Amino acid sequence: MLDTDKELVKQKLEEIRPALQADGGDIELVSIDDDDTVKVKLRGACAGCPGAMMTLQFGVQRVLQEAVPAVKRVVPVRE
Known about the structure:
- By secondary structure, the chain is an alpha+beta fold.
- Helix content is 46%, strand content 25%.
- The protein contains two helices and three strands; from the N terminus they run αββαβ.
- The chain has helices at residues 3-22, 52-67; strands at 25-32, 37-44, 73-76.
- Strand 1 (25-32) and strand 2 (37-44) form a beta hairpin.
- The protein starts with a helix and ends with a strand.
């Protein structure tokens, strides 16, 4: 992934963050792998939320893929 794409991923996550924080959660970029998988850490209410995978797939991943088509998927990592 190009450095400009990585910066755009970071920027988009910053734009998403307030919506998650409004529900008591948060998101943190952990890494972007060589296969263009974005790894994130969910915090707060998002970490234990049963709907977290839906939020990642239909919210975060969709937004990131619209902005950065190279993104293949978004996956959560545990601490």
